[in-house]
Design a protein that fits this description.
With 243 residues, the chain is α/β, with parallel strands linked by helices. The chain has one domain: Uracil-DNA glycosylase-like domain (Uracil-DNA Glycosylase, subunit E). It is built from ten helices and five strands, in the order αααβααβαβααββαα. A five-stranded mixed beta sheet has the order 2-1-3-5-4, with helices on both faces. Strand 4 and strand 5 form a beta hairpin. The radius of gyration is 18 Å and the shape is globular. About 15% of the residues have low confidence.
């Protein structure tokens, strides 16, 4: 973890210096963040992504937007950081942006995104009330699964997001998201619907909306998982997810 953090800090430092040299304004950083970048990961304070120096999601997003930590940076159109209120009580975490998300720069905007919006509505919430992001922030070519090294490089960003948002509940969407946050041996058909924990936050894994588009009968299972989340958040049961 310390080696990854050191590598990321070196990249950020190079980007800031490069921006200055070509006459661009560097992103606004807090005094604490600037001090952290100067000292690096070997400073006396044990700052890490679990206890981030970033003051806000916006500040973190500015840094992530120029990330070149893995090969996906060479093929992406945009970094899909995530969206939602900075202190949402519920966070949905998918696996990686698709083609439409890569173009729009926003998570879950395609057909799977519309279905996720319906699921959120069935919970009695609006999409604008929850936080939505992915484990990997860049689109893998040809919609392939993100590879282990790409997940490893990007996971610290997700940890920072969760540290800043502090949601009451996390809902992982799909196998890869659950394997990244819960356990590498996680099997979605066997283990979904059971409470787990990520960064000491209750975590409920369920099927990815894209899976529901192929297998609509699984909506019943997702609705069961969603009801568990609603109970944990103290939400009423307004209506069932449509088949």
């Amino acid at each position: 973890m310390r080696e990854e953090l050191s590598d990321l800090l070196m990249q950020i430092q190079r980007q800031l210096i490069s921006s200055r040299d070509i006459g661009l304004d560097a992103p606004l950083l807090s005094a604490e963040s600037l001090q952290y970048l100067k000292k690096g990961p070997n400073s006396e304070s044990e700052s890490s992504f679990e206890a981030p120096p970033w003051n806000s999601l916006k500040e973190l997003e500015q840094l992530v937007s120029k990330c070149e930590r893995c090969k996906l940076s060479k093929t992406r159109r945009s970094v899909v950081f995530g969206e939602g209120p900075p202190h949402a009580s519920l966070a949905f975490v998918g696996e990686a942006p698709g083609v439409e998300e890569d173009i729009a720069g926003k998570p879950f905007v395609g057909a799977a995104g519309k279905l996720l919006t319906d699921i959120i509505g069935a919970m009695g919430l609006r999409r604008e009330e929850v936080y939505i992001c992915n484990v990997v922030k860049c689109h893998p070519p040809h919609n392939r699964d993100p590879e282990p090294d790409e997940i490893e490089r990007c996971l610290p960003f997700l940890r920072s997001q969760i540290s800043l948002i502090k949601p009451a509940v996390i809902c992982t969407l799909g196998r890869i998201s659950a394997q990244s946050l819960i356990d590498k041996g996680f099997k979605i058909t066997r283990d979904r619907g059971q409470w787990h924990s990520f960064m000491d936050i209750p975590c409920m894994p369920t099927y990815h909306p894209a899976y529901l588009l192929r297998y609509p009968n699984a909506k019943r299972q997702v609705w069961e998982d969603v009801q568990e989340i609603m109970k944990r958040l103290g939400l009423e049961n307004p209506r069932r997810l449509r088949d």
